[in-house]
């Protein structure tokens, strides 16, 4: 789609004062998908030459905001030697998008859109990722992905602030994972997406509920919970309005599927399929 309100496109390597009507341009798959009447100038990040993926000595994986879904998928399948590697491909596949979108859409763009069904939000929140945010004056701050997304389309992002990268801890990458996704249609947008991780070091478990909720909810347990405990914790934390409501699923259905998939994830990671709620 042509954006007929845009009067200028600036290279992000050139420092200029941020002004009203500016927006960061990554892959552009969202920006050019619908009218953006408030925008006047795009600040293009495509020539920043940030390394898409960096594995640090401590085992953590840093994902640049400009890393495309295709680059992340290739890294997860071919180069990431970690128990959690399959989760990367599972979340990439949750896009249900064409190869053209895969080669343009970025991890940072998916997070900064803040949509409940954003699979990069699901991936990075489940693996306890941290966002590196950079202000216009060059100062930086870090915030957990689960806290970065505050609601449907609402982010902890100040005017002119930039998401530089997301880092996944090495310990999280060593976790066993379980993935469940539900949609109203065979190839539809995620209505509920639940990821579980089991830490081999201390036996702790985390269950992250996304897509069904307006923001990611990550529940951490020092030991795997019972079915009843898991359900009670989710129900206590996710209030009525926080179960998302749109044409891809009613809140009641999303709650039902979120709880159901959370229990499936718990069972898979604890190998206790016959255990009942208690």
Automatic annotation (TrEMBL):
Matching SUPFAM superfamilies: FAD-binding/transporter-associated domain-like
Pfam name, any one: FAD_binding_5
InterPro entries named in the record: Diverse_Substr_Oxidored, FAD-bd_PCMH, FAD-bd_PCMH-like_sf, FAD-bd_PCMH_sub2, Mopterin_DH_FAD-bd
PROSITE patterns with a match to the protein in the record: FAD_PCMH
Organism: Streptomyces hydrogenans
Domain (FAD-binding PCMH-type): residue spans on this chain: 1-173
Protein name per UniProt: FAD-binding molybdopterin dehydrogenase
